[in-house]
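Hey forum,

I'm writing up a methods section and want to include a predicted complex as supplementary material. The small molecule is coenzyme A. I've pasted the protein sequence and the SMILES. Can someone with a working setup run it? I'll credit the forum in the acknowledgements.
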Amino acid sequence: MAAFDAGGSDAAVFGAIDLSTGEVMGTASVSRELAPAAVGGTVASSASAAHWRLRAMATRKEHRGQGVGARVLGACVRHVAGQGGGLLWCNARVAARRFYERGGLTGCGEEFDIAGITHIVMWRRVDAEETGA
Ligand SMILES: CC(C)(COP(=O)(O)OP(=O)(O)OC[C@H]1O[C@@H](n2cnc3c(N)ncnc32)[C@H](O)[C@@H]1OP(=O)(O)O)[C@@H](O)C(=O)NCCC(=O)NCCS
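Reply by user p_vandermeer:
Happy to help. Structure tokens for the complex are below, copy them as they are.
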């Protein structure tokens, strides 16, 4: 797993690299961003916690279903944990809902459309020093 410079902030970009070819198999990023109201309404007690947004979660087609996404998501969770933990959220494609649920995220609020693709907000708590997804 490689971590790339995300511009000097405590944001992070992760890539799963095939060391034999140098190919990037999967990516994701995390940065601080307040969760939408759907999350606050579900877990009002978390509203004061640090909020982190997960973005750019993707695995190349030919590498899907092999645990690459889970490892990249795990790296994001560990990053948030290392920064003191908090609330991790994303706009998830509903097609990826099961993937995120396996990573401990829960859907909340109404489904909505982004560029013709149905999404739902998903979130989870991350404890400080948590070691896995
Ligand atoms: C969603 C996405 C990131 C998942 O990445 P991935 O690398 O395929 O994720 P994983 O391999 O860790 O898990 C995917 C599935 O493979 C299964 N799997 C994991 N390791 C496996 C293995 N060794 N053998 C067989 N199956 C395995 C998992 O059970 C999981 O099943 P699930 O979909 O029921 O949860 C990927 O499908 C993707 O890029 N989709 C298109 C873009 C997208 O939708 N991104 C999310 C935007 S919100």
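Some notes you might quote in the supplement: Residues 26, 57-59, 64-70, 92-93, 95-96, 98-99, 102 surround coenzyme A (CB under 6 Å). The first strand starts at residue 2 and ends at 4.
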